[in-house]
């Protein structure tokens, strides 16, 4: 059985890549099938999406409904079942300053390589959706300061997200991003810029690692990694790609079963059962049974 990197080693690997300004691409994971599938493909980082994780866990909107306990359990399961560093969504930090401290400590203990905290009011709303409101800048600055102080590993990345662009404009979002950087955030996440020109402006203004949130059907243009790197971004996440593709596949195959009573001839691709057993680790189970069989 291959040796799994420690959580500290995974944090160090990702932090080094960010600090060395080597571009990072991170697909969204939302359950253990998506986590295992992405893990074996050699990405530098995986991103635990709040939308997808809440949807797969509870079947509910990403609207501040999932609790810290529910989310940290998912972080631990993802981190334990993969070898790739994970940056995990922690919404608003699940409350006030004390909650933020516990969130950072909990995510770090669970094995995350980074934690994302946003400046929305509670209950939060999913990015790229309307009606998001933000807390006062000074309150979020204190949250970032607490988050930085709470981590025990300096390689535990603090990702500070501002949702100010949609309701308060780009200038306010940039002002907040600069303040969050001064407070100690390692990565700045200006949510929902609405054009390539806005993304260029963010890259010119913010002298820090920047994260681009690329959502199919969202507000932000889907730029290539090469273009993002050119304009000053250091990381791109694709939080919805996995669960949107999964939903499309399920819709197709379940529709075929409903319409015809069979999957024979269905247009939706079917992942080979033999590959799924391998992905889930059945070969290790069979090897164990052969070794210890009477």
From TrEMBL:
Signal peptide: none
Gene Ontology molecular functions: oxo-acid-lyase activity
Organism field: Stella humosa
Keyword Methyltransferase set for record: no
InterPro entries, sorted: ICL/PEPM, Pyrv/PenolPyrv_kinase-like_dom, Pyrv_kinase-like_dom_sf
Key words, A-Z: Lyase
SUPFAM superfamilies per the UniProt record, alphabetical: Phosphoenolpyruvate/pyruvate domain
Family matches, as Pfam families: PEP_mutase
Protein name in the entry: 2-methylisocitrate lyase-like PEP mutase family enzyme
Keyword GTP-binding: no
